Amino acid sequence: MSRRTLAALVLLLLLIAFPFVASGYLLGVFTIAFYFGVFAMAWDLLFGFAGEVNFGPTFLIGLGAYAAGLLNVRGWPILPAVLAGAVAAVIGGLLLALPALRLRGPYFGLVTLVAVLLLQQVIVIFAGVTGGEIGLSLPDVLSVDARKNYWYALAFMGVSGALLYALSRSPAGLILQAAGQDPVEAQALGFNVAKHKLAAFSISALFSGLAGALMVFYLGTASVDTVVDISVTVQVIIAVVLGGRRTILGGILGAVFLIGVGEVLRPLGQLSTFVVAAIALAVILLFPDGLIGAFGRHGREA
Amino acid sequence: MLALQILIDGFAISALYALGAVGFTLIFGVSGVLNLAHGGLMLIAAVAAWYTAGELHAGQYIGAITGLAFGVLAAFLTYFVVVRPIQRSRAIPRDETEIFVLTGTLLWGIMIQEAVAYFFSDNPLTVPALISGVANIDGVRVPFNEILVAVISWLSIGLLWILVNRTRAGKALLACAINPRGLTLLGFELGRIYLLVWLIYGLLVAAAGVLLATFLGTSSGNTGALTASAFSIVVLGGLGSVSGSLIAAYVVGYMETLTAYLVSPQIRTIPSLLLLVLVLYVRPQGLLGRR
């Protein structure tokens, strides 16, 4: 067993044992951070590997969250509602990606951004059904116990992280990476670039939708501010870039750091967002490979 | 009557959109930068004008000039603090520069937005009209300021056209958009051309910001929407095509005005967003874009 695997196992055990020493407040912060970790990892699959800047992760997250929430209001139990939310995100993602993947770079980014703006408008216009700007309160919640919520989120993030990481290291992940870096050459080598990108988009949508649906059942409400707004997208992007793009697991590190710093800086009020954005900008300029890149490289040199 | 009202209001709004979008497309065409802090720069110019004119009681003209100055300053800051370090960084692979510029300017725009909200105000800011009074055009009351906004917008765009097509420096900009390496071989210094284009961009974006503040007002919460609308207009028209941006600005401006007057102001932006998605699917290079 390599030293790195051992370190990962120890860290995992520490995380599992964490609720026995931590306060409920701290657990709540980590629970949110874990869901954001999944958002970030799902986004990194598209950004780091497929090479597409998706400005609309919250389109997928929001679809999953609202589909699950609306079904729950109509009497569906949590588990089927969450699964239906994930299905909704994948279908929505496919509808968006099928034509959009013909576009590249900024064009793709803009279409995904527009999708978010449209979803936001639809939610506000149909306020009677969706709760509009106030939000949709759900009859059911995952649990009222902070520890259980923490463990649910940790388990979900752990499984998602393992699957996404394995996928990124698989032959399919390598083809995806090749397609992102040089689509023409990847195509010339006989790989179906469009198919791989579409698959990546669907998988990203699946995990985003699941995470969005689970998070609203933790929060007890689905609202535009928490799962659809552009500011959520920005946080996801910051988390990936901070942690290190093209690493998948860096997203977890970035999300925990981001949500943690946001919590520490809360007394600063509005200025906290400024500080977080400034930190992220500094990381981009000084360590473009993110936290994992910065530490990983030192590790290899030593 | 309503038709005339829509015609006039749509024209003024579209002119302002065109002014904002032309800067965005210019900076992309010449230096390949998609500046997602665009709305933030407009906000800085607007806030500087509002603060000088209102809080410091210097009057709207000095306010407008201060706004222009701060807008240019902010554009240069964006270039030197964010864009140039990313373009020159050795740690960032060449083919990923574009993605890093997008992310970097996005973060920079958020910093501007939050700083303005914190140190000044997150309420809507309005700069006093540059000229007061109301014209009566065939029964429709039109504030003089609205006419002035349209005139200044078109004057600025006209000046830009003369600069690019009729002056030596402007032709260098054009050449830079087509083939930067060829330009360096001819002995031009790219660094100076980039400075010039950021100066022009700063003036355009600042003018758009100040005019917007006198016309419709703006607020820190609005910066994302400003960037998104400039981005969509420019993509709709075709990235890098100035005439495409002008046409797209009028299409979007009139669609929004029509929707606001005839359907509901609440869904003002939806038809133009749908049109944008449709056009991109059918013709990904935009109306007048080349590939």
Task: Give an overview in words.
Chain A has 302 residues and is an all-alpha fold. Chain A has a domain at 26-230. Chain A contains 15 helices and two strands. Chain A has helices spanning 3-17, 24-49, 57-73, 78-100, 105-125, 127-130, 146-169, 171-181, 183-188, 193-219, 224-227, 230-243, 250-264, 271-286, 290-301, and strands spanning 136-137, 221-222. A two-stranded antiparallel ribbon of chain A has the order 1-2. In chain A, α8 (171-181) crosses α10 and α12 (230-243) packs across α13. Chain B has 291 residues and is mainly alpha-helical. Chain B has a domain at 23-221. Helix content of chain B is 74%, strand content 3%. Chain B is built from eleven helices and two strands. Chain B has helices at 2-31, 38-55, 60-88, 97-119, 144-166, 168-178, 180-185, 190-215, 223-237, 242-262, 270-282, and strands spanning 134-137, 140-143. Chain B has a two-stranded antiparallel sheet with strand order 1-2. In chain B, α1 (2-31) packs parallel to α5 and α3 (60-88) packs antiparallel against α4. The longest helix of chain B has 30 residues, at 2-31. The radius of gyration of chain B is 19 Å and the shape is globular. The A-B interface holds A 47, 51, 53, 99-100, 102-103, 105-107, 109-111, 113-115, 117-118, 121, 124-125, 181, 230, 234, 237-238, 241, 269-271, 273-274, 277-278, 280-281, 284-285, 287-289 and B 34, 82, 85-86, 89, 91-92, 95, 98-100, 102-104, 106-108, 110-111, 114-115, 117-118, 122, 224, 228, 231-232, 235, 239, 266-267, 269-270, 273-274, 276-277, 280-281, 284.
